[in-house]
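Incident log, support desk, overnight shift.

02:14 A customer reports that sequence design results differ from what the structure should imply. Their input is reproduced verbatim below. On-call engineer (initials T.W.) acknowledged and began investigating.
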């Protein structure tokens, strides 16, 4: 199903039957300049069945036509629309993959600034949380990541930021203040041990926990960036998605 959410097109994915537990708002990846909600439909379908939720996949605006903070504005509008439509915050979870994973936490920081309540939980799948590209994993995993590198992500960051400071928290949630990190909902981050964004997840979780928040990291061996999207063909992707579903179920309940 499709429609509008917060003024932007949205792809809705719902379980085949049964009462809905809530809504999962999920942002697709693509370095903020490419990508489409359709790429996330297999994962969304899996989560919808396992969680008994509807999954909203918004088509947020992309750079270069719409640089930062357009994606954050669209994500915040989508979250605000769910609340305004009558879904309580405790029945909403928020997440995303790759750039969408970073966007999910950027939206949660923007929601704090807007005075909106936090959702029940958040997830980040191979999340891009630091647009300064300073993590040691860019060197450590350069030979084991077939998809991403500092050059490709640097190009995406430059196009998306369009001159904005990469340390702005709603661009790079890693640099949020401790008070904001502590106020985030319980979070689960998954990353491949062999991908260049591995340390984004690790460092972000360390900062959240040091600030007094709750954030768990799962580092998966023998996987690649955003392997969770391959639930239709990969048993390892199914296992990762099931771990996400178990985590979100705990917080919905």
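02:41 Re-run completed on a clean worker. Output:
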């Amino acid at each position: 199903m499709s429609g509008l959410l917060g003024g932007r097109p949205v792809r809705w994915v719902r379980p085949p039957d049964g009462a809905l537990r809530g809504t999962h708002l999920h942002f697709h990846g693509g370095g903020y300049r490419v990508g489409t909600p359709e790429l996330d439909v297999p994962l969304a379908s899996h989560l919808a069945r396992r969680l008994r939720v509807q999954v909203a996949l918004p088509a947020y605006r992309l750079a270069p036509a719409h640089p930062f903070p357009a994606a954050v504005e669209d994500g915040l509008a989508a979250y605000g629309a769910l609340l305004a439509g009558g879904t309580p915050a405790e029945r909403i979870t928020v997440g995303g993959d790759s750039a969408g994973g970073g966007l999910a936490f950027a939206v949660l920081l923007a929601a704090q600034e807007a005075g909106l309540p936090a959702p029940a939980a958040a997830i980040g799948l191979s999340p891009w949380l630091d647009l300064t590209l300073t993590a040691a994993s860019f060197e450590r995993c350069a030979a084991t990541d077939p998809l991403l590198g500092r050059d490709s992500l640097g190009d995406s960051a430059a196009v998306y930021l369009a001159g904005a400071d990469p340390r702005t928290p709603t661009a790079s949630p890693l640099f949020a203040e401790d008070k904001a990190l502590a106020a985030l909902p319980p979070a689960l981050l998954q990353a491949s041990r062999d991908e260049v964004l591995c340390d984004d997840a690790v460092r972000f979780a360390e900062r959240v926990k040091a600030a007094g928040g709750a954030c768990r990291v799962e580092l998966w061996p023998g996987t690649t960036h955003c392997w969770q999207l391959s639930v239709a063909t990969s048993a390892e992707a199914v296992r990762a998605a099931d771990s996400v579903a178990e985590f979100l179920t705990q917080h919905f309940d």
